[in-house]
Design a protein that fits this description.
Blueprint: E1 4-8, H1 12-24, E2 28-32, H2 35-40, E3 47-51, H3 59-67, E4 76-80, H4 85-93, E5 98-101, H5 106-122, E6 128-131, E7 134-137, E8 142-145, E9 148-149, H6 154-165, H7 173-181, H8 189-203, E10 213-216, E11 220-223
Parallel strand pairs: 1-2, 1-3, 3-4, 4-5
Antiparallel strand pairs: 6-7, 7-8, 8-9, 10-11
Helix pairs in contact: 1-5, 6-7, 6-8, 7-8
Bound molecules: calcium ion (CA).
């Protein structure tokens, strides 16, 4: 079945060049020039390529709304002319899966879209999971511990869901960045530690003797299979 890319970019020359290359790579491209048009074209899209600066709404605000909507699981690649580290972090925090700075080559964009689709189809766990007192509904994005709902950020949820879907298996920080954050997050391994700390607080896990999220010295983290 054909894969549909939703492209939201107001700059005509960029939009047409990207459309051309993605279509040549075999994708169905739904090209939109405004945030509103993009929002109304979400149904049926498999991946989103989103410009940071749009005339009617900042791409990042659009992305935040997306992550709170029923389309929350859609992989998103952001396009931007702004290359500072701050923007990169802001975009990733808002829920972008990848990030490309203008000017970029169309071949690189097509490769990134392919990588995003591969990750989102293969790695993202689905259905319901139960580990000890922890319950996750991966499709609804719902988490509960000891029958009380947990209020997690999207990344916290994704990290918890990933580890819970592979109980007993150890992942390095870099593997977790690749699989959960979905980008080469240079110098960002501490991000994983921070998220683990926050998740442990939610689960009442003692860092020195965690019941759920275990530190494996020199290796990384794992969800205990028998908490
Ligand atoms: Ca723009």
């Amino acid at each position: 079945m054909a894969v549909t890319v939703l492209l939201v970019e107001d700059e005509t020359s960029v939009r047409e060049a990207v459309r051309f290359h993605l279509e040549r790579s075999g994708y169905v491209v739904r090209a939109c020039a405004t945030a509103l048009e993009g929002w109304e074209s979400l149904a049926g899209a498999d991946v989103v390529v989103l410009d940071w600066m749009l005339p009617d709404e900042a791409g990042i605000a659009w992305l935040r709304r997306l992550r709170d909507s029923s389309f929350a699981g859609l992989p998103v690649l952001m396009l931007t002319a702004r290359a500072s580290e701050m923007d990169r972090v802001e975009g990733l925090d808002a829920g972008a899966d990848d990030y490309l700075t203008k000017p970029f080559s169309a071949a690189e964009l097509a490769a990134r879209v392919r990588a995003l689709l591969r990750r989102s189809s293969g790695e993202r766990p689905r259905g319901a999971l139960k580990v000890g007192l922890l319950e996750l509904n991966l499709d609804a994005g719902f988490a509960a511990f000891n029958s009380s709902e947990l209020h997690l950020t999207r990344r916290e949820f994704d990290l918890l869901a990933f580890l819970a879907a592979h109980p007993g298996r150890v992942y390095s920080r870099q593997e977790l960045l690749d699989k959960v954050w979905g980008v080469d997050f240079i110098g960002g391994e501490r991000t994983v530690d921070q998220h683990i700390t926050q998740l442990r607080a939610h689960l009442g896990d003692e860092p020195s003797e965690p019941t759920y999220l275990e530190t494996v010295r020199g290796k990384g983290y794992r969800m205990r299979a028998d908490p």
